[in-house]
Amino acid sequence: MAHNSSGSGFSDSSVHVDVKDYYGKRLQKTSDLKTGACVAPAQPLPAFVREALKKVHPEVTARYYGCGLVVPEGLEGCRILDLGCGSGRDCFMLSLLVGEKGHVTGIDMTEAQLEVARKYTDYHMKEFGYKEPNVRFVQGYMEALTEAGLQKNSFDIIISNCVVNLCPDKKRVLAEAHSVLKDGGELYFSDIYSSGRLTEEIKNHKVLWGECLGGALWWKDLLQLAEEVGFSQPRLVTASIPTVDDEQLRDILGDFKFVSATYRLFKVPKGNAETCQVIYNGGITGAEDRFQFDSRYTFKTGEVVEVDGEAACILKHSRFAEDFTFQPPGGSCEPCCVKPKADTVDPFELALQSGSQGLGPATGGCCSTKTADCCK
Question: What DSSP designation does 280 have?
Fold first, then answer.
């Protein structure tokens, strides 16, 4: 059933109405959340990110319901889109990191959240010393980015932080993201995934939807949907097992397992590129000497690393092209050449390798019921 229209072709579904009510009215602070469905990043935040967060106004942070941070590398001068920006905490932090020549757009369907973001835009621009604002906020839907006025082929990076699961049509979200990204652009996002396709009971449970579990995508479906809309194969970066404190919700979830995973998807040419040897030149802010691209590849400055054909294609055609030196085809692999780790595709396997805990009472992290910081 459709509700309020958000443009010429897209309308609210009952899920959108419920989610807007949950995040616009029912949640007033992060501790109102009932689960830790989104968890903190698997790695500590770089110092420059922590310093940028300190400059965000306390009211913006208090009304933010996002899970751990989603901050890719190489942001200076980039045009970034934040899907489900909520009260704007990440947008303001990113507006400082991209610099005055970069730009950040936040989009959210919940007006109550956007009111907070807009209220403090001038505050942050003055705090950062910018002459002109480099951040804006748009009310709209992830499934209808172009209808919200966002231009095709206009963003270098899209980030999304535990919100894609709140959308009924994941394929449309991915297709819209692919459309507004520039060639070589990246969708870098964290979300909740399930161990299988969920039952109708779980998918129709309003609280589980609001808590980011009822709309969780089966992780194998992400791989298929990404390919169908034109993205490169998703590169798994980190994965952790979330916590669910509420016993009644755990009973409803039954044997289904959930994982919080970060992926990076690129809009690059497809083809059977050959294995390649690359050298990281260093210098990326926050990764000057060591750059973890995904769970398979960690590059150290000056070290020769053998990468698979798709990774080579991504590095050559993305914003990282100037950060690497590519060895001539057919070059011999010297003793210093680093072979890649085995490719871990299953996020549950990666979470186990990382020592993440399973479902059960919260043991801490940013999304326990005491300190929940999940799902904008």
Answer: E
SS3 (DSSP) at 15: helix
Report the relative pairing of strands 258-266 and 181-194 from DSSP bridges.
antiparallel
Calpha distance 188→70 (Å, rounded): 7
**What are the CA-CA distances from residue 259 to residues 41, 137, 141, 294 (Å)?**
12, 30, 25, 17
* Closest by Cα among 178, 224, 147 to 81: 178
- The pairing of strands 103-108 and 135-139 is parallel
What distance in Å separates the CA atoms of residue 183 and residue 310, rounded to the nearest whole number? 15
Q: What is the arithmetic mean of pLDDT over 49-65?
A: 91
Backbone angles phi, psi at 238, to 5 degrees: -140, 160
* CA separation for the pair 138, 149 (Å, rounded): 9
pLDDT value of residue 368? 28
What's the pLDDT tens digit per position in 96-105? Answer: 999 999 999 9
3-state secondary structure of 140: coil
208-211: Cβ within 8 A, 24+ apart? 208/249, 208/252, 208/253, 209/15, 209/18, 209/19, 209/22, 209/166, 210/18, 210/19, 210/22, 210/23, 210/26, 210/27, 210/166, 210/375, 211/33, 211/34, 211/35, 211/37, 211/249, 211/374, 211/375
